[in-house]
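Consider the tokenized backbone below.
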């Protein structure tokens, strides 16, 4: 074999030492005329994540109902597959940021709730409401634009769902709009 044939053959293969996180190598495959690693998802990590989610749901239920989580596990073992499916699809999951928001009794998300949300969703750019009076905001500032954007979006939601804040001032959207000074 000549050197140019060896180089051509080497270019046609792009085999990395290992696959990226959450994947493992299962042989090779040809993609676009180039031989590459066949990286497939690790099933064990997916199952671990699902089990962690189930555990957190059980712990939240136990805390909410003030019982031991072991009792809930025992009850779940006695359910049929159909009953278990109904339980899994109808059980609401209350995340930390929702708990923080309920404790604060804030209309819209409080700073504590936003911080909890950011911990659960890294990379999130969520911010609290712009509560400054519109007359105090500098025209064209970031805060002014955020407020204007929220007010127009929420007005569209109210229109779409036929919500009147004059008739139902305790609705969440009405409270949030008051907080944003809409």
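A designed sequence for it:
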């Amino acid at each position: 074999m000549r050197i140019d044939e060896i180089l051509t053959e080497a270019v046609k293969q792009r085999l990395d030492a290992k696959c990226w996180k959450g994947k493992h190598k299962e042989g090779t495959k040809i993609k676009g005329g180039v031989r590459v690693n066949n990286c497939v998802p690790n099933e064990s990590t997916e199952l671990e994540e699902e089990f962690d989610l189930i555990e957190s749901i059980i712990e939240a239920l136990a805390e909410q109902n003030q019982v031991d989580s072991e009792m809930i596990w025992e009850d779940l073992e006695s359910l049929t597959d159909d009953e278990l499916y109904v339980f899994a699809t109808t059980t609401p999951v209350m995340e930390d940021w929702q708990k923080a928001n309920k404790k604060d009794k804030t209309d819209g998300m409080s700073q504590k709730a936003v911080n909890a949300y950011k911990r659960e969703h890294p990379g999130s750019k969520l911010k609290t409401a712009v509560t400054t009076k519109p007359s105090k905001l500098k025209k064209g500032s970031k805060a002014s634009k955020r407020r204007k954007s929220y007010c127009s979006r929420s007005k569209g939601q109210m229109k779409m769902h036929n919500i009147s804040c004059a008739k139902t001032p305790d609705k969440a959207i009405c409270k949030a709009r008051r907080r944003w000074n809409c």
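The chain is about 55% helix and 10% strand.
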